[in-house]
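Task 17 of the worksheet. Students: predict the tertiary structure of the chain below and write it out as structure tokens. Keep your answer in the requested format; marks are given for formatting as well as content.
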Amino acid sequence: MALLARNRNFRLLFSASAVSNLGDGVSALAFPWLATLLTRDAFMISLVLFATRLPWFLFAIPAGVLVDRCDRRVLMVQADVFRLLLTGGVIAMVLSLPALPPEGSGVPYVLGLAVLAFLLGAAEVVRDNAAQTVLPQLVAGDDLERANGQLWSVEQVMGAFVGPPLAGVLIALAVPAPFALDAATFGVAAWCLWLIALPPRPRGGARRIWPEVVEGWRWMRSHVLLLRFAVVLGLINALHVMAFTVLVLLSQEGLGLGATGYGLLLAAGATGAVLAGVAGPPVVARLGPQRAVLLGLWMMPLPYLLIGLTSSAVVAGAALMAQAVASMLWNLVTVSWRQRVIPEALLGRVNALYRFFGWGMMPLGALAGGALVSLSEPVIGREMALRLPYVFVAFSLFALCLYGSRKLRF
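Model answer:
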């Protein structure tokens, strides 16, 4: 915690991340749970998550150019204020419903929820690109692993450990309540970010967007290992979202959980990420980046297979915990490495291109998860259809492990 004590700017960024991720954790449960109150169709529910992740495919690259051109602090503030207003729109939509619609009549509401989720996701693209790009301006290079570990730990504590159980309690009290808290957190986060004092950055003259994108792409293409990591991350994230899309239904129908129980299930997974965020940097230092990133990769398949086979919420929670540890090990190595090797003048653009590959495949994973359940349900039954994506994801990740062991070498 010495870094937080001595670095005011990082402390403010840390505080903003903590508060906004509390809101993200609340909405991570509230959005899909609200969708399940409107419809039981897995494909329709997947549209909400698809809409949330689609902006990473559409806007990640332009956002990278924007981040390199503009004041990153101001961009983050504007994005959080915009998210506050949009969350107010969700509250207004929920309050406008005289009652939750009966089965089969909630499709228009799901589509409206998807539109709001898309706009929230677009703001998140700008905000997250700016936040990850600004970190090397706030901390020394030797502190990047420690800073990233602390940021990811607080994000997991607030976003997955505290937020989802709190959302479960709030949504049981009143459906609009978790969204009201979400809106408040965005306001507090924007205020914290506004207080950050950034050193001035040299800015280039006004240029067209496309030449700047091409410049970033040429640099990335010349660094083949970085491009490989980006593509593999995209496949990992697509598979993760494929499984996560149906988790809300599996938890209700296969594990017998209510809203609070589902929140606790997500919190169990966050425990692994919190522990890995704290203990991860020493593990990376001991094993070295190469072995640490491959360890994380090889840990990924088994948790999904366990979730697909178990009917125990305890086993599912332990599996989510192990999956979070694996993801944190991967992130600690790859993000810190990326922040070091990409030139500062190109960091926003190349980082956005990396996340275009790494996050842009997520909406496809969301649709694939919902479609796989809907198409297989008439053949193998509802419960087996809800478990099928997890088995598919586990074997697909095993194939990525074989590829990564050969091609992802520093």
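Marker's comment: Residues 2-197+209-407 form a domain with the Growth Hormone; Chain: A; fold (CATH 1.20.1250.20). The chain has one domain: 2-197+209-407.
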